[in-house]
From TrEMBL:
This is Transporter. Pfam families: SNF. It comes from Marinobacter similis. GO terms for molecular function: symporter activity. It is found in: Membrane. One of its GO terms (cellular component) is membrane. Coiled coil: none annotated. PROSITE patterns: NA_NEUROTRAN_SYMP_1 (PS00610), NA_NEUROTRAN_SYMP_3 (PS50267).
C-alpha cells in the first residue's frame, strides 16, 4: 500500500495520476479496520490504565474523554479529509492542497513532525511490545498459576532488571514490525485485524468478568468514573490531552495517509466516530479489568508503567484456565501493538522512499535499525540508567529517565503540535468549500465542526501548552 509519487508532480498531474495509480480501500469497513489497527494498541491497554492511576482516576478520565470528543475526534476528521482531498502521501497531499490554494508549502512541517514522532515513539513502543512478547512465555509455562501479588511483582521486576532479555524481546518485536513494513503486506494484516481485534475484545471482557466476581469492582468503578478534581493537576490535563492524540494515532499524519485511500462516498464523520468509540471502549475495558484487581490486592494505582504487568497476570494466575487465557491475551496484545507499530514505521519508510529515493527494503532496514538502537536507551532507563535524568535540572523533568522523556516529549508535545498544525491547515489554509465538500455534513453539524477546528481546538491545545510551560 505504499505510494511513491514523484516529489515534483504538479497538482493536476498528480491528481489525474492518483486515482489510476492508487487502489482505494475496498470499503468503509476496511478503512475502519486499518485505522483501528493503528489506534488500538499499547496506548489503550498498557498506558491508559497506568496514567489514570498516576493521575488520580475519575477527574483524569473525564478530561481524557472530553479531549477525545472535543479535540481528538475533530482532528481525526481533519486528518482524514486532508488525506482524501490530497490523495497522496501526507507530505505530498499537504503540498498539493496548499499549492492549489496558492499557499506556502511550509506545511511539509506536518510531515516532518510525523516522521520524527513516529521514530521516537516506535523506539520505546517496541521495548514495551517486547514486554508483551516476554509474557506470552511466562503465561504459557504456567508460572503465573496461583501466584501471590508479590511473586507476580517479582517476575516483572526481574524482567526489568535484565537488559539482555529486554533487548532480545525488543529485537523480536522490532523485527516483526520491520518484516511487515518491508514486504508491504498490509492487506493481509487488515484481514487479520478483523478477527484478532474482536478476539482481544472478548479476552478483555473475560478479564473484566473475572474482575467483577473476584475483585473490588465497585471501588474500581468509582475510582474511574467519580471525578475528584482535587486529584487532578495541570500536568495531568496535559497528559490527558497528549494521550488523546497518542491513543487515536493523531498528530503524525497516520490517519491522513489512511484517509488518502478512503473512497469518496464514505462518510468521514461516521468512520472517525466509529474508530474513536472502539478505541475508547478498549481503554475503558482495560481500566475495568485492572483496577478491581489493584484494589483487591492492595496494590498501588499509581505504580507506573508496570501496572498491567503486575495486575493482569495475577488475575490469569487465579482464574480457571488462566494459563490459556493469559497466553491468548498476551498474543493478542502483541498483535494490537504490532499493527500500531507498523503504522508508526510506515510514514518514515514512505518518507525515505519519496525524499531520499531509497527502495522499500533499504528504507525499512535503515529506519528500523536506527529506531532499534535508540530503543536501547529506553531499555537501560529501566535498569542501569534508572537514576539518570538527563534534564533533571529543569523542575518539570525532575527524575525523568530517557524513557520517560521520550514518552513525555512525543505524546505531550510533538503529537499535540502536529495536531495543532493539522487543525490550522484544515480550518484556515484549505478553502472552506473544499473542506465542506469532503465532509459532506449537514449544515449545523458542519458549522459545529468548523468552529471547533478553527477556534476551539487550536486555542485548547495552545492553552494547555502555555499553562504547563508556565
Ligand atoms: N495509537 C497507538 C496506541 O494507542 O497504542 C500508538 C500510536 C500509533 C500512536 C500510531 C501514534 C501513531 F501514529
Amino acid at each position: 500500500m505504499s505510494v511513491s509519487d514523484s516529489g515534483s508532480a504538479t497538482y493536476s498531474e498528480a491528481l489525474e495520476g492518483s486515482n489510476a495509480k492508487r487502489g482505494l480501500w475496498s470499503s468503509r469497513l476496511a478503512f475502519i479496520l486499518a485505522a483501528t489497527g493503528s489506534a488500538v494498541g499499547l496506548g489503550n491497554i498498557w498506558k491508559f490504565p497506568y496514567i489514570t492511576g498516576e493521575n488520580g482516576g475519575g477527574a483524569f478520565v473525564l478530561v481524557y474523554l472530553l479531549c477525545i470528543a472535543a479535540v481528538g475526534l475533530p482532528i481525526m476528521m481533519a486528518e482524514v479529509l486532508i488525506g482524501r482531498r490530497g490523495g497522496h502521501s501526507p507530505v505530498n497531499s499537504l503540498r498539493l492542497i496548499a499549492e492549489r490554494d496558492r499557499l506556502k508549502p511550509a506545511w511539509r512541517m506536518v510531515g516532518a513532525v510525523g516522521v520524527l514522532a513516529g521514530f521516537l515513539i516506535l523506539s520505546f513502543y517496541s521495548v514495551i511490545g517486547g514486554w508483551a512478547v516476554s509474557y506470552v512465555g511466562t503465561a504459557a509455562s504456567g508460572q503465573l498459576v496461583g501466584q501471590s501479588a508479590e511473586a507476580v511483582g517479582a517476575i516483572f521486576s526481574n524482567l526489568l532488571g535484565d537488559p539482555m532479555t529486554l533487548l532480545l524481546w525488543h529485537t523480536v518485536f522490532m523485527a516483526l514490525v520491520m518484516l511487515v513494513v518491508a514486504k508491504g503486506v498490509r492487506a493481509g494484516l487488515e484481514r487479520a485485524v478483523s478477527i484478532l481485534m474482536p478476539g482481544l475484545f472478548v479476552l478483555l471482557l473475560i478479564a473484566v468478568g473475572y474482575a467483577m466476581t473476584s475483585g473490588e469492582f465497585g471501588r474500581a468503578v468509582s475510582f474511574l468514573f467519580q471525578p475528584d478534581f482535587s486529584k487532578l493537576s495541570t500536568s495531568g490535563i496535559l497528559v490527558a490531552l497528549g494521550h488523546a492524540f497518542f491513543t487515536l494515532s493523531l498528530g503524525m499524519a497516520v490517519m491522513m495517509a489512511y484517509g488518502s485511500y478512503l473512497p469518496k462516498n464514505v462518510s468521514i464523520a461516521k468512520t472517525s466516530i466509529a474508530v474513536s468509540v472502539i478505541d475508547t471502549g478498549v481503554a475503558l475495558l482495560a481500566g475495568l479489568a485492572i483496577f478491581p484487581i489493584v484494589f483487591a490486592n492492595g496494590l498501588e494505582p499509581g505504580a507506573g508503567p508496570g501496572l498491567i504487568f503486575q495486575t493482569l497476570p495475577l488475575a490469569f494466575g487465579q482464574m480457571p484456565m488462566g494459563s490459556l487465557f493469559g497466553t491468548l491475551f498476551f498474543v493478542l496484545l502483541i498483535f494490537a501493538a504490532w499493527t500500531s507499530g507498523i503504522s508508526l514505521l510506515e510514514p518514515i519508510v514512505e518518507w525515505l522512499e519519496e525524499r531520499k529515493g531509497l527502495n522499500r527494503t533499504a528504507s525499512t532496514l535503515g529506519a528500523g535499525v536506527v529506531c532499534w538502537a535508540l530503543g536501547i536507551a529506553s531499555i537501560l532507563s529501566l535498569n542501569l540508567w534508572s537514576d539518570f535524568a538527563p534534564l533533571g535540572s529543569i523542575a518539570m523533568f525532575e527524575g525523568k529517565t530517557i524513557f520517560d522523556l521520550l514518552d513525555f516529549f512525543t505524546a505531550n508535545i510533538l503529537l499535540p503540535l502536529g495536531g495543532l498544525l493539522v487543525a490550522v491547515f484544515a480550518g484556515w489554509v484549505m478553502s472552506r468549500e473544499a473542506v465542506e465538500k469532503e465532509l459532506a455534513l449537514s449544515g449545523p453539524m458542519f458549522r459545529l465542526w468548523y468552529l471547533t477546528i478553527r477556534y476551539f481546538t487550536p486555542v485548547a491545545v495552545a492553552a494547555v501548552f502555555i499553562y504547563n510551560l508556565m
